[in-house]
Amino acid sequence: MSMLQLLEVSMGYVSKREATLALDNISLTVEDGEFISILGPSGCGKTTLLSIISGLLTPTSGQVKLGDQSIKEANLNIGYMLQQDYLFPWRTIADNLLLGQKILGIYNESTKNEALNWLKKLGLEDKKNLYPNQLSGGMRQRVALVRMLATNPSLMLLDEPFSALDYQTKLKLEDLVFQTLKAEKKTAVLVTHDIGEAIAMSDRVVLLSPRPGRIHRVFEIPKEIALLLPFEARQHVNFNDQFQLIWKEMESLASGT
């Protein structure tokens, strides 16, 4: 059974001045444990698509299914990691981690220990009593990852979670997120503007056309690259060929050829 299905999903917006079609007839299947990335020009609807998958937005037409369940509202089995960590500055790191469990009604000694164990695995156990402003940007994004994992969702949505970080931290965090999600056999959908990041982290890369966003092409990343950690994938002899292939396709979209 596929983990995630998008069936002819379209999204339009109506204002007093005009009607705008943001997404048009998106159909896509993401298998259990698969990691895909969504690329496309600015304004093509990448983040809108993630919001629809999460249940935060209802599509104008079409359907999103997670397993056998239609997604019609925010879903407990879906985690979301954003560009900003959105940690509450007046709460300690531990309190931030456990807030999701408390809101969902799954907080107990066992789930608390699981969350704190994740903090330990990611090298932040000694930071649990600190406040967000006492941590670096990379540390805060690691906390955001733990917060997402703490509720044990089966599907992870990642909306440019590394774009605000310096390049060295970004590369380290790519490896950490990739390794963690693969070890936990999580299904993941990443939105990014970075072609290299998409190739390094993904099993497939989905390229959307300019607005209205449609699936223009899906690139299968060769196994010899897809199975490597992102930093190692970037060093692979065939990595640049994949980069050039996707780059040229994006250029053809931009030029309209």
UniProtKB/TrEMBL annotation:
The keyword Flavoprotein does not apply. SMART domains: AAA. Residues 4-235 form the ABC transporter domain. It comes from the Bacteria. PROSITE patterns: ABC_TRANSPORTER_1, ABC_TRANSPORTER_2. Keywords: ATP-binding, Nucleotide-binding, Transport. GO terms for molecular function: ATP binding; ATP hydrolysis activity. Pfam families: ABC_tran. PANTHER family: ABC TRANSPORTER ATP-BINDING PROTEIN (PTHR42788:SF21), TAURINE IMPORT ATP-BINDING PROTEIN-RELATED (PTHR42788). This is Hydroxymethylpyrimidine ABC transporter. It comes from Halalkalibacter akibai (strain ATCC 43226 / DSM 21942 / CIP 109018 / JCM 9157 / 1139) (Bacillus akibai). The lineage of its organism: Bacteria, Bacillati, Bacillota, Bacilli, Bacillales.
